[in-house]
Input
Amino acid sequence: MAELQAAHGGVSHGVGAIINAAAWLHAGGEFAAEQAAATGNVELFKTAASLTGQARQHELTAWELCSREAVARPVESPRERIMREAAQLREAEGASE
Output
């Protein structure tokens, strides 16, 4: 999550949900792999591979969505930010009088 935040300047709820799902899939894959190793069950190895593959795909999807959202997010220039903040201060001072 921190990596997405640093790279793209923000993480939406949708991206966060995808990352959450990826974490659960990865955990399930690890558990299945441990069970497969303990029992020698080939089907559990297949399940582990499937779950971790799905987790990896979710992570790639989250990265791509976060990237697209960053491009679509409006960027305010420093001048625009200063002008907006100054106007807000003037409004707040006017309302308190």
